[in-house]
Amino acid sequence: MKYLLYLLLFTSICNAQGYKNYTKVTAYRIVNEDPEGPCNFMYYMKREGRVGYYIQAAQTYNDSIAYNLLALKKTAKGWQKQDYVCNDGEEPRHTIINMFIIDVNNTRDTLFTSCDNRSVYFPKEQKEYLDPSNLIAAAFTKDIKDFYNRDLTLEMAGKTRDSITSDKITIGKKPIYGVSRKSFEANFTRFQIASTDSIFNKYGTEPDIVQEFWLDNMRFKFGQNKKIRQLGIKKPERPFDDTFALDIDGVKVGDSEELLYSKYPNTTFFRNWGAPLENIKDHYYYDIKLSGGRGNVTFYISNKAIREIEINFWYDDPPEKKAPVKKKK
Fold first, then answer.
1. How many domains does the chain contain in total?
2. Residue 186 and which of 24, 42, 262, 292 are 20 to 30 A apart at CA?
3. Is the same domain home to 142 and 51?
4. Beta partners for 222?
């Protein structure tokens, strides 16, 4: 029995030493508002669901900021309070635009603050408590301070995308822009699977005939002009012969995300664009243009690698057929 007690004591000590506290703080900012939209943070959260033009986010696993923000939420009840007046649809607007989700082990809490982090807002009370001496900002780590010091609205207004020429999109080192199905099978290889579908256009009048063909892990769609309209490729679960591998300006599916940083610095300036708000560090994308208005290329990222690529080709629309003019008798 004595040995059993020693064993239980030793086990509990080992478990305590092996236990690691888990903290995570995700900071969200409303960067752009709808001029006539509600002054309601959750309205944007529910409507958007992703990081992007309206909402930007940052994340830290630092213990101190997590516990400091939780303590601030309790301390704030002792500050001077005032009614929260939103001024929906009027100027000046007063929107609570910052939210922090604080995870500590198996518990989660939420904190709302004003645009300049000078007050804490409690939604149920419709009250905000005024920070007496910049205590909210003092609780931030450097990375979160930097996040709030950036003028993201201005940065986003100047956001540009990088571009490449369409001849840099190749299969087997041959450009594929403007290639038809017959030309592809004559000059590249035959498709392995084919299907045809009818999709109504935006006017809902006449159906677009969309043809879809597969080659290994690549999906091709052809439009009415018989040329490749869209090409998608996912990281394969098994290796394929790279004879017909898709190459985009030296980038392939499965490559590291870091390769895009050096090649397309403007496009990758915002590095969590499109990520779901519940997990801002994964499943986002980068989008580059094809020069001359020929389309775009989207790189989808997962686990810091390119998991999927989608290419959309655009072509000049054929001239509209005009009804013949009737000659006057």
1. 2
2. 292
3. yes
4. 211, 228
